[in-house]
Amino acid sequence: MGAMPSAEETSVDQDRPDVPPTRRDEIAAAGSELIGGPIGRWAWLGSSRLTPVRVVALVAIGMFALGMAQKMPCYDWAWFRGASSQYTHACYSDIPHLYLGRGFADNLVPYFDRLNGDMEYLEYPVLTGLFMEVASWLTPGGSLQYREQMYWMVNAGMLMICAAVIAVCVARTHRRRPWDALLVALAPAFALTATINWDLLAVALTAAAMLMWSRGRALAFGILIGLATAAKLYPVLLLGPLLLLCWRAGRFREYGTAVLGTAAAWLAVNLPVMVLAPEGWKKFYTFSQERQVDFGSFWLIITQRTGESLDVGTVNNWAMLLMLLACAGIATLALTAPRRPRFAQLAFLVVAAFILTNKVYSPQYVLWLVPLAALARPRWRDFLIWQACEVMYYLGIWMYLAYTTSGDAHKGLPTEGYQLAIALHLLGTLYLCALVVRDILMPEKDGVRTDGSDDPSGGVLDRAEDRFVLGGAARPTQHVTQSVGAPRVEWGVRPPGAA
After folding, report:
1. Residues annotated as region Disordered (predicted)?
2. Residue 475 is inside which H or E element, if any?
């Protein structure tokens, strides 16, 4: 039962739209031994109720629930009994603390009412602020501690819906590979960081946008990206890779539609607050600019190793320059690759570049990359190596904060240990980026394309002819190869200069 499938069986499987990961990936097959081994050749003909998408959604909800259980020491007492305990138990969350700290406990209206303390207004984008406010409306009354607990619980319930949406959207984006979404559902860093903050709202909208683009619905894609950008800044970055791919394929009309949808949706959410509460609205943007070098970035390693603080303006300029250089490299890669890259590949690279060059890396930022990684490079070994690095960083930041807040006891991880945790996060992300770049430069190594697919998440870009390339880049051409059972379309490359 646990044997790897034969070449003939694999070829037959390739013609089905829902090949299980245990028949595609050696690591998935080995891991399945814990539950009895790889699924049988004809097991997919079984129950029609237990579809791949439903299985993925149930697994995602189950892992999310395990992540909630991991926060129980904090939920019961650690959030309310000093800072160090919530770090030593690695169960910290912004949600209960900001319930009081951002005025939700006092029924203050985000962006309109001033806050007490250093933070004048809520420092989150408008759609995230609305999400936080709706959760406060649903929070029952009682003592302050009880309301903080219930506020976290209400938010966790709403974020669980987002997690299920993400898993379902990823499963549906690659029509022939729904099981790749198990990478999202089972990602340990995803479960650990899901309820630290409200990032899952933007991630869910971005995943839904990717699904819409894969279905050729450019306007819906744009609207969802606009809404996602109204919840977190990073989703707008996806318009850059999309421009490059549409430029190479000559699909400017669809790209223009997407951009108009993005702008319209973003303005529809932001314009009322911009007009009625301009000072509160711009707090997120001024806070992002003025924020000092913070946890998780290589900038922090520089400041800690040199013992000198870096001017925030200088860091902003250097981070912007590094990001522009990374984007220039991605653009060159997109326009010179021997075969047009897949949308998910470039989307992963640009968001990873933003994370790597940014002056702060909060542990929940890994959520931005998990769905994109599952679509860009659905290989279990490399995904789990990256996830191991992220879990080490997750533990490292809390142990470092425990060390800095435990006084003379110094319980936790010293500065040098935390710098190692940051380095692991950076190296793990760079490792996955390097593999994605290799897949782009050597498309025959791209596991998504081994069954003859071109760009399953590319929508109108899928199997489109190149209209513009740089250098000696080859253009895609269609070949039909005979597989066991049925002919299959395989998208190869035409040599440069061929007729």
Report:
1. 1-23, 476-499
2. strand 475-482
pLDDT on residue 25 = 57
Instruction: Please compute the mean of the pLDDT values over residues 125-137 and round it to a whole number.
Output: 97
Name the average pLDDT for the chain. Answer: 87
Beta bridge partners of 478: 491
pLDDT per residue as tens digits for the range 108-126: 999 999 998 667 899 999 9
Residues near 9 by Cβ (< 8 Å), separated by ≥ 6?
Answer: 23, 41
- Distance set, CA 296 to CA 81, 393, 394 (Å): 26, 8, 10
Specify burial of residue 321 (Cβ count, 10 A radius: 0-12, 13-18, 19+). Answer: exposed
Which of 295, 288, 335 has its CA nearest to residue 316? 288
Residue appearing with tokens 């003379």 = 408
DSSP secondary structure of 483-497: -SSSEEEEEEEEPTT
Cα distance between residue 373 and residue 370, in whole Å: 5
Distances (CA, A) of 334 to 137, 353, 405, 437: 46, 15, 46, 10
Are the CB atoms for 264 and 271 separated by under 8 Å?
no
Rounded CA-CA distance 48/447 in Å is 27
In the Cβ-directed half-sphere of 342, how many Cα atoms lie within 13 Å?
Answer: 32
Q: CA angle at residue 433 from 429 to 437, to 5 degrees? A: 170
Q: What is the pTM of this model?
A: 0.88
